[in-house]
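Q: Hi! New to this. If I give you a protein sequence and the SMILES for 2-acetamido-2-deoxy-beta-D-glucopyranose, can you show me the bound structure?
A: Yes, paste them in.
Q: Okay, here:
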Amino acid sequence: MHTSSLFIILGLLHCLYLTQAYISCSSKDFCPDDSKCCPFYTTEGILAYGCLPSNPHIKGPGSCCIEETLTESTTGCAGNFKCSLQNETKVCTLSTETETIVMMPRYQLFPIPDSKSIGNIYGFPIEYRERYDGRGPVAAYYSNKGPILTYTLPEYTHTEIQAVVIVVHGSGRNADEYLYSMNNVANLQKEFKPENILVIAPNFLAVEDGVYSVPVVMDDNTTIQSSPMKWNETDPIPHTWRYGANALDSFDEYSSYQVMDAIIEAMIEKYEKGNDGFRHLERIICAGHSAGGQFIQRWALTSNSYIWNDDKHSGRIHVHTNRISSIKKLRKIQMKRKLPDIIAVVANPRSYAYLDSRRWRNSTYFGEPTMKQKQNCKTYDSWEWGLANGGILTCPYKDETISMFHGNISKIAERYSKRNVIYFSGINDTEILHGSCEDDGFQGRFRRKRSLFFYESLNKLFGRYVHSRVEIENVGHDHSLIFEDPKAISALFQASSSN
Ligand SMILES: *[C@@H]1O[C@H](CO)[C@@H](O)[C@H](O)[C@H]1NC(C)=O
Ligand SMILES: *[C@@H]1O[C@H](CO)[C@@H](O)[C@H](O)[C@H]1NC(C)=O
Ligand SMILES: *[C@@H]1O[C@H](CO)[C@@H](O)[C@H](O)[C@H]1NC(C)=O
Ligand SMILES: *[C@@H]1O[C@H](CO)[C@@H](O)[C@H](O)[C@H]1NC(C)=O
Ligand SMILES: *[C@@H]1O[C@H](CO)[C@@H](O)[C@H](O)[C@H]1NC(C)=O
Ligand SMILES: *[C@@H]1O[C@H](CO)[C@@H](O)[C@H](O)[C@H]1NC(C)=O
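A: Thanks. Here is the predicted structure of the protein with 2-acetamido-2-deoxy-beta-D-glucopyranose bound:
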């Protein structure tokens, strides 16, 4: 590697052993591991760096594009693609053997947001937040503005948060990289001032990640070091956090989906209380790509949190009993004040949780699978692929939702249809997948097809199109390029409220 990796090991005092490596571009500029520092001069003439992500799906080193003029950001190309211009538009191109030119968009690379962002992992106490004493469950996260609970302190409140983007990483668990690319998106959109967007990237850690302690920074800036929640990364299937499995060891009563609920509830509490910094919160965008896309779809289907502001039939609140009274109080306030919009964004997942037992048998026929198909894959409609009984993937969070609706799945489906969900699909995400029978035999051969099939299944189920779906041209399985696409950006930031 041409850059040195920096291992951050803080002293025993802080008990923090972070084995994740970061690239240092300069003494003060960091990039996420596996990315590449792209230097450029800002309009103020200052040497700055963008971070070119590595794309595991495209072979080759990647290249930083040279900017001819002073700019606020730089660009880069994946793999062996070259920086080039097509009709005055900055693109990446690759000439193939047959002389056809393949085109891809450029990565948009802004300077690293804040010294407290890349390279600083924090802990979020998902229970007992007001009186956290170091013992409750703590979820690891990155943020573009440092610790998220202190944001109401006077030091920060010169900016008012209007949008929160919570982005869930894929199977690589590279939350810092997702934080960086979503921060680029925050800089590209024109709906809000970029500094009014708070980006949070939860990290669903595995034991292999070696993160033993993270600083939990509370509302008043008191800090307690704590051991973060981790998930079984391999059993019974890879990335168990993606289907809402409970965490390991002492946090085994807590689902990965409660992490999402808790972070959003905390943001909404600040908004409800009229706290400086959050008074003007308008929307909370919850986006995930790949395994993170799976996470978001299943969470948006099963979450019972009050954040969704569903109709009465949506039922009770998914929090520990000791918090219900405070939430009830909040609900009263909600009557007076509109809650921020919650938008769930599901990008390029490998599979979906279907809403009934039908599947597409081919591109025209949607119905019950054949007896033979069912016999060959008995769990095709069990969790995480559907809401039917059976299967081996345990998810008490989902079970609670099913029992809340007395087992009536169509009521859960109906509630889901009314939530604001957007599906993003890369036109070039066409790799033929070989995984489990539930995916390969019932959901389509590749991710773009799976996206289309699932979206069309909603039309069959409800007799009309619900939610929305955006296809992104010239992009494959790449979270940065998906979210940085102009069509994606307008879907994320300009979508009007559907409720
Ligand atoms: C470039 O622009 C011209 C004129 O607007 C158009 O006809 C042509 O199709 C464009 N080429 C590409 C590759 O987009
Ligand atoms: C919060 O604590 C950190 C570390 O102890 C300190 O550097 C920072 O200045 C504090 N911020 C505020 C607003 O008190
Ligand atoms: C994951 O689960 C498997 C099967 O139960 C178990 O053998 C393994 O130890 C677990 N891994 C961790 C890190 O707990
Ligand atoms: C799709 O499947 C249905 C039901 O098995 C069958 O009747 C139909 O002919 C198939 N269509 C195509 C195009 O294969
Ligand atoms: C389930 O809910 C749907 C929609 O509300 C309703 O039409 C149906 O009768 C319910 N089914 C059962 C078995 O209660
Ligand atoms: C994406 O797919 C289109 C249509 O199949 C193809 O023309 C284009 O070359 C592909 N782009 C890349 C970057 O693979």
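A: The chain has two domains: 26-109, 113-499. Let me know if you'd like me to explain how to read the tokens.
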